Amino acid sequence: MFRPKLPTTPQPTGIVTPPAVIEPTTITPGTPTTPLAPAAPAQAPASTRPTIQLTPGTALALVGGGTAVVLVVGAVLVSMLLAVAITGASVAVCAVVLRSLLASDTRRR
Question: What pLDDT shows up at residue 90?
Answer without folding.
Answer: 98
